[in-house]
Design brief:
Length: 65
């Protein structure tokens, strides 16, 4: 149970960190806080989808290095 709780907290904090970094990068590039917030919220979701597709392709094709 302790490991599951630790994993949940670690995953949540990493997700939050990902959103913050995405927002900071977007703000540094645009200087617009609204665009930065939008990008910071959308990019991690897209990244999750891309990661899932990536994993599926690797598993389906049994790519091993």
């Amino acid at each position: 149970m302790k490991n599951k709780m630790r994993l949940a907290i670690k995953t949540s904090t990493y997700g939050l960190l990902h959103v913050i970094v995405a927002m900071l990068v977007a703000y540094a590039l645009t200087g617009n806080i609204k665009i930065a917030i939008g990008f910071g919220l959308i990019e991690p979701v897209i990244q999750m989808i891309v990661f899932s597709v990536h994993e599926y392709v690797w598993e389906k094709n049994k790519i091993y290095i």
